[in-house]
Amino acid sequence: MGRRPTGDDEVPDLETDDPSAVHDLGLGIVAVDDELHGTAAIQPTMWTPGTEHLRISVAATWADALLGLHAVRVMTPRLPVTLDLDVHLFDEIAGVDRVHGRSRLVKAGRSVIVTSVDFFDDDGRFVGFGSGTFMAAPDPRLTMESMDWVLDRFATPMGSLAVPLAERIGCERTEPGVAVQPCTPVVHNASKAINGGLLVLAIEEAALSADPAATRIESVQVRYLRAIRVGPAIARAELHHGMGRVEVRDASTDAIAAIATTRSC
Most buried of 134, 144, 164, 224 (most Cβ within 10 A)? Predict the structure, then answer.
């Protein structure tokens, strides 16, 4: 969907032509008045290893889609790019079978779109929240399909995650505090770069491996600096009392692609 960007911005994953792991996460989205509502079943392959807690990277991938669609609605036909993304999951996420996300537009400025999302379980319990900021790609020649077309594509969940997410996309912990994630069609967004939500998996894995006492990452905030189209992505984390600082570089250029803050528990 949309033409391939030539700049360094991160495009929210709304559709690709390849067998993306985003589709395997099974998110269905519908418009309800001014909000966008998403629903997805949580499978054991989506849990943080050794727990029954949803991975923060799975929630981030869902959030990126739910939030990015508001930018599409405002910016069409311009292609939106993600500037910042944050997601926070409560202890109540443990053992939840299905998540419902409700996203809304907070502010549409002249150049930046601010959005917010809340997550609930089937009983209506508040289990997490997040937000994102977006802008139009600098190149005005980069365009999107219509909002109706995109919503039609997301109306029905498109896949199921048969294996753990890290295995599905080939993300590996190579040493304490370091995770490597290849750039392949499995993780591509519309610009053939690593999807911003899925890039959070490298951040999550690096932070977890840097803190042997941690069971999961409960909070993450990411600022995207440039897209990774060759890779692999290399995430390096430094932890202090559960607070992590993670830097992600594109191994092909050694350029910093994202910086993130995490909170483990």
Answer: 134
Contacts of 110 (CB under 8 A, 6+ apart): none
Q: Which residue has the tokens 């998540």?
A: 99
Two structure tokens written together for 142: 């980069």
Q: 245: which residues sit within 8 A by CB, 6+ positions away?
A: 237, 238, 259, 260, 261
- List domains and CATH numbers for the chain: 21-264 (2.40.160.210)
The torsion angles phi and psi of 98, rounded to 5 degrees, stand at -150, 145
Report CA 6 to chain centroid distance, whole Å: 21
Tokens matching residue 244: 């992590």
Cα–Cα distance, 195 to 197 (Å, whole number): 6
3 touches 143 (CB < 8 A): yes
Q: What is the pTM of this model?
A: 0.91
235-244 CB burial, b ≥16 within 10 A, e <16: bbbebeebeb
